[in-house]
Amino acid sequence: MLVADACGALAPLVAPEMRPSLVLSMLAQLAADAEPAVRAAAAAALARLLPHLATLDKYPAARGPEWARGY
Question: What are phi and psi of 41, to 5 degrees?
Fold first, then answer.
């Protein structure tokens, strides 16, 4: 959960070109975690990340199967 929270909190400080690839991919991996609390933290971090994406071309990745899994 700490990693997911850190991704969301640090998203504004990460270089804009790295947000859609590095941070989003890390959150996608966390969203596939077996622990429901980790998935919930990843979803919350994604909500904090999306406003900081310069473009939404990677947004479909945030709607992939790992995000569709309920928490």
Answer: -65, -40
| Structural domain spans, the chain | 2-68
The residue with greater pLDDT, 1 or 42, is 42
Q: What secondary structure does DSSP assign to 32-47, as a single string?
A: T-S-HHHHHHHHHHHH
Yes or no: say if 67 and 31 are a contact pair by the CB < 8 Å rule: yes
Provide CB contacts within 8 A for 54, sequence distance 6+: 16, 17, 19, 20
Condensed to tens digits (0 to 9), the pLDDT of residues 29-53 reads 898 899 999 999 999 998 888 888 8
Closest CA to 69 of 15, 21, 33: 33
